[in-house]
Description:
Blueprint: E1 8-13, E2 19-24, E3 32-36, E4 44-50, E5 53-58, E6 67-72, E7 77-80, E8 93-102, E9 107-118, E10 122-131, E11 136-140, E12 146-147, E13 157-159, E14 166-168, E15 171-180, E16 183-192, E17 197-202, H1 205-208, E18 216-221, E19 224-230, E20 237-242, E21 248-254, E22 261-265, E23 268-271, E24 276-281, E25 286-293, E26 297-302, H2 311-317
Antiparallel strand pairs: 1-2, 1-26, 2-3, 4-5, 5-6, 6-7, 8-9, 9-10, 10-11, 10-12, 13-15, 14-15, 15-16, 16-17, 18-19, 19-20, 20-21, 22-23, 23-24, 24-25
Amino acid sequence: xxxxxxxxxxxxxxxxxxxxxxxxxxxxxxxxxxxxxxxxxxxxxxxxxxxxxxxxxxxxxxxxxxxxxxxxxxxxxxxxxxxxxxxxxxxxxxxxxxxxxxxxxxxxxxxxxxxxxxxxxxxxxxxxxxxxxxxxxxxxxxxxxxxxxxxxxxxxxxxxxxxxxxxxxxxxxxxxxxxxxxxxxxxxxxxxxxxxxxxxxxxxxxxxxxxxxxxxxxxxxxxxxxxxxxxxxxxxxxxxxxxxxxxxxxxxxxxxxxxxxxxxxxxxxxxxxxxxxxxxxxxxxxxxxxxxxxxxxxxxxxxxxxxxxxxxxxxxxx
Length: 318
């Protein structure tokens, strides 16, 4: 999702857009610029954006896994990520993707998590990490199948958002839904790229029991993972952040907002009526309009860079 400290936002409608729309938040009157996808846009999904690099996944024919690419729009360099190590043989599975910068190693990493559903109460979770510097995938071993009644994953885990909606301090967060004690609950699935640990995080009590996934938005806010609780069209919006001790704190509440209005990312919202993309400042409670209209937006931060996808590997080889 969008970073409030970045000057540019990239947005696209995964159902209809052939391009990425770029909005400069400092010069809203200059309109919208566009980036062409490096390949067939109709089968493309953005996994994430980091330091000027965009990770995109392309759907293939039925039965074939998505192809992953790293793309630097500033240099027009595109790199196909090598074939995965994990093959999927089950007919019932979910796949999560993530993309993040590992500051401890100076490496860009992609994450692929495969969740295979086996019977009603048992699932298998396997995951692998791609290193841009090493140019390969490494599977992280999970030594046992995870039965729901013995782990924090719950009996049934449902993927709500398969691409990463939040990247915070080297960790990737996805929104999931699982069943605990016969009750459906929303939660977060988190992967730390440095420690390569995968874990679940409970949401605040007022949020975890929401009925619909659209009532909960996930993003990065001032170097913390944050969730938005949208109770109803004409009600206040609550913003919660997770502190270093894994405790949720209600940061602030949006009481004045255009109606109907929906938050789609950090400091970003849109009218539901005419799909106008808006910027919201929680400090002064000011809403500014952009010149972008988009029906089903995914929003990411973006800053141009000259990161060379090939040079990182060459420097590692030395």
